[in-house]
Structure formats: C-alpha cells, structure tokens
Write a structure and sequence with these properties.
293 residues; alpha/beta; eight-stranded parallel barrel; 12 helices; 8 strands; binds ligand TD4; binds calcium ion; binds zinc ion
C-alpha cells in the first residue's frame, strides 16, 4: 500500500525560488508541491505569490500544486482557499488535543466542499536531544492519539513529530529520528504522513557559504539515508526550505565576493536560482519522485 517514493514540498518566497522548483520539476519529470507560509504571504503578498504559482502550474506539463504551509488560524486558511490553493495545512500543534481537533475539523469543513485537501499536525517539531522520556512523549506524535485524531477530523494528511525540527541546527550531537514511532504511527494511520524539518544541511553548501563569509558553525540536518528510511516507512510528503535558503545565500555570497563590479541583480539572482534548482533536483532523486510525473 505504501508508495515507494515521496513528493517534496518546497517553500518559496519569490520568483527565483519558484523558477528553481518549476524548472527542476520539468527537468526531472517530477511532481512538486509549492509551499508558502503565512510569513511568505506577509513578505510577498497573497495575490502576487498565488498568481505566480498558478502561472507556473499552467506553464509546465507536470502536476504542480500550491500549498499553504503551517497555516496558523482559520482566517489565513480561508483566504488561501479563496485564492485557489490546492491544499492547506492547519497547524494546531500548539493547542491541546481537543483544541487541535476542533480547529482542524473546522478547516476540513471549509476546505473539503471546495475540493481542497487538508494537512494537520500532531506533536511538536522540536529538538528532542537531552530530553527525558517523559519530555519526549509530550513532544513526539503518539500513534494511538494520531489514529484518533485522523478519525475524528477526516484530515487528508498528517504531519508527524519524530525528532525533526525546522532550520539549520537540528542536532547538537548525532542525528536521530524515532523510526520505531514512525512505524507504529504507520500501522495505525492510513493517510499520507508528512515529514517536516527534513533538510539535510549538506556539508558542501555550508563549506561554500563559509568560504564566502557565512557563519554557520554547528549547522546540522537529517542525513539522506534517514530520509530514505522514513520514505520506506510511509512518509509520502517531505518539506524542504532550509536547504534552498542555504543554496541561495551561499551562491549570492560567492558572486558578490568574486564579482565586485557586478550590479545587475539577474547576474546575482540567476545563479542563486540555479543553485536552488540543483538542490531541488537532488531532492527529487532522493525522494524517488523523479520520473513520476
Ligand atoms: O514547513 N517547513 C518550512 C517552514 C518554513 C518556515 O519559515 P517561515 O515561517 O519563515 O516562512 C519545513 O518543514 C522545512 O523544514 P527545513 O528542514 O527545510 O527547515
Ligand atoms: Ca507546529
Ligand atoms: Zn514545517
């Protein structure tokens, strides 16, 4: 029943990131989910961003969807549904169990009649290093609670907390995911599972950024083998933002350092876009979504 591949959700805030995703999708013949967060909407504007993505989706011969990532309340979800998003995430993970269920249900009731699918989150994306067993239980997704949550909300996809976190500093020591927990969730939950905080923070990008002045000491992500294992255990959607940010800024730093006479933004942002595109193509290979469109 489990698919042997996952689809990536790539966060965008501007034209260059969107071009990186759409060009990668076309070259890899891979489906792609374009994700925008509420803070991306604050930065770029809902109409600007949604119309950019719709234009891309219409222009490429590949399934490309527009997804709200970490929708924080009913209001932003409802604006995105009206703006034509194909799916929305309602992140009620900061609420208690019943509060999260109530908010998620309300979003499902708004979205489903319009053909929009809904992702919810149970558990919290926080580092679990140096935490006690009790503290971990309070943060990571409980398999039985996940089954009850899905049944009572009719949600379409579930983001699970198995030890990942957002950003470039995921672990102080060894990278560790709770695969046993993921397996137990998969046995009880039969909708697509989503892995947030999945960037690998590749050493070569950190080295490149550092060479040109970045200070990113201690940055650490999820090893690629862990991602493969998570897919084999039923993860179907994987969120990537940090690796795109790192690729972009490393390249901007390099060009500004090497070409002090350059002042055409396209000569700076174009190569930065290409660097993000190479990262996206690498993810499509890793996730096994290449050739699946
Ligand atoms: O959901 N995401 C992306 C979250 C981006 C949040 O940033 P803003 O609110 O500033 O837009 C992920 O799960 C990405 O995980 P990653 O490992 O790439 O950080
Ligand atoms: Ca959350
Ligand atoms: Zn996330």
């Amino acid at each position: 029943m489990d698919k042997e591949y996952a689809v990536g959700a790539y966060n965008i805030n501007n034209l260059e990131a969107l071009l990186a995703v759409s060009e990668a999708a076309v070259e890899e013949k891979s489906p792609a989910i374009v994700a925008v967060t509420p803070s991306a909407i604050k930065y770029g504007g809902l109409a600007y961003l949604s119309n950019l993505v719709k234009t891309a989706a219409e222009s490429v011969p590949i399934p490309m969807s527009l997804h709200l990532d970490h929708g924080e309340d009913f209001e932003v979800v409802s604006k995105c549904v009206s703006a034509g998003f194909t799916s929305v995430m309602i992140d009620g993970s900061h609420l208690d169990f019943e509060g999260n269920i109530a908010l998620t249900r309300k979003v499902v009731e708004l979205a489903h009649p319009k053909g929009v699918s809904v992702e919810a989150e149970l558990g919290r994306l926080a580092g679990v290093e140096e935490k006690t067993v009790e503290e971990k239980e309070a943060i990571l997704t409980d398999p039985a609670a996940a089954a009850e949550f899905v049944k009572r909300t009719s949600v379409d996809a579930l983001a699970v907390a198995v030890g990942t976190s957002h950003g470039a500093y995921k672990f102080k020591g060894e990278a560790k995911l709770d695969f046993e927990r993921l397996k137990a969730i998969r046995e009880k939950v039969h909708i697509p599972l989503v892995l947030h905080g999945a960037s690998s923070v590749p050493a070569w990008i950190i080295e490149k950024a550092t060479k040109y002045g970045a200070e990113l000491g201690g940055a650490k992500g999820i090893p690629e083998e862990h991602i493969k294992k998570a897919i084999s255990l039923g993860i179907a959607k994987i969120n990537i933002d940090t690796d795109l940010r790192l690729a972009f800024t490393a390249t901007v730093r390099k060009i500004l350092a090497n070409s002090p006479k350059e002042y055409d933004p396209r000569k700076i942002l174009g190569p930065a876009k290409d660097a993000m595109k190479e990262v996206v193509k690498g993810k499509m290979h890793l996730f096994g979504s290449s050739g699946k469109a």
